[in-house]
Amino acid sequence: MVEATQPRRLTPKGRATRERILEAAIALIARQGVAGTSIEDVRAAADVSGSQLYHYFDSKQALIRAVITRQAESFLDSGRPRISALDSFDALRAWADAAIDQQRQTGCRGCSLGSLAGELAVSDEETRGDLATGFLQWKDLILNGLRAMRDRGDLRTDADLEQLAFALLSALQGGVLLAQTVLDVEPLEAAMNVTLAHLETFLTGVR
Amino acid sequence: MVEATQPRRLTPKGRATRERILEAAIALIARQGVAGTSIEDVRAAADVSGSQLYHYFDSKQALIRAVITRQAESFLDSGRPRISALDSFDALRAWADAAIDQQRQTGCRGCSLGSLAGELAVSDEETRGDLATGFLQWKDLILNGLRAMRDRGDLRTDADLEQLAFALLSALQGGVLLAQTVLDVEPLEAAMNVTLAHLETFLTGVR
């Protein structure tokens, strides 16, 4: 994933061009899926020449990997102050609500790491590895928040933090997948509410 | 979905041929994904002529819809006696364990309605509709089981059954998606354990 997260040093203009290509790819993939998006579609939408595009992304595969990395990072640096660290019940609830709102605002469509995973993981080993890295980073971010809660005395010491972290991420991914398929946010709300209710039973109440 | 679930009346030989084509398609899609599977691949794997294949499935789309219907049905008629009705905590636990075992046995690969949904729902409105129908049937099967438990007095009357049913299905789909991406069954186990633990808090204990 290194080449995707740390592109070689670019001029400000180069960074802007790379960014324009990446954003065009993200928007097209959200609408059409990966299989339905060609390099030529991305080139036309970003309004760049073929040689410009290949300067930054030398294959469709490289472009898709950059999209995956961006999707994982956009969660990690979402910029919402309450979500920068998932280290309180309120922060986890706000994270869940932000995901639910996002689905509601996009009419339960839109590009998530999860829908990319569904489309790509089956058939492409390298991409599966990138997706796995993204998911495990995400899980660790949740896990670190839960550990901070436990160390602070907010969570009982018998809580299985690894299990809770994977359950929260699975609830999010499964809920988004179902919401996008049935075009209704209800499954996502149900999954997050139930998983957070279980987490809540481990709160010590001394927050 | 009618044409896919109720194909026109076929002779026993016709049914066997249609079945052979469908099973070849399911196996290929599990290995290669939908985008990576051509009609020609299916024809060769099923060892039928092109005209035979088109007699039963007049397009790749028709074939994919039949695969989706079969995936949803295979859950509903899985033939495992304890899973034919999800109307007790033990049956729900057995259902979760069967899903976990299946992922473990396939090395966290394999074709699920969920991975089909991830690959297809974004880009194809008709297929999305079929998948939504499949998921909602599945949710209703869980919901009917939970209602039977409540009516029998096994579940407290304040349990939100619709929420529990969607949460169980989301946990399964998200857990399978993560398991298939990170190649480890742990996220699926975590998701099912947490959701069932929440359900358990609504048991009346008079089972």
TrEMBL record, chains A, B:
InterPro entries: Homeodomain-like_sf, HTH_TetR, Tet_transcr_reg_TetR-rel_C_sf, TetR_C. Residues 15-75 form the HTH tetR-type domain. PROSITE patterns: HTH_TETR_2. Pfam families: TetR_C_13, TetR_N. It comes from the Bacteria. Keywords: DNA-binding, Transcription, Transcription regulation. GO terms for molecular function: DNA binding. Residues 38-57 bind DNA. The keyword Chaperone does not apply. SUPFAM superfamilies: Homeodomain-like (SSF46689), Tetracyclin repressor-like, C-terminal domain (SSF48498). Gene3D superfamilies: Tetracycline Repressor, domain 2. This is TetR family transcriptional regulator. It comes from Actinophytocola oryzae.
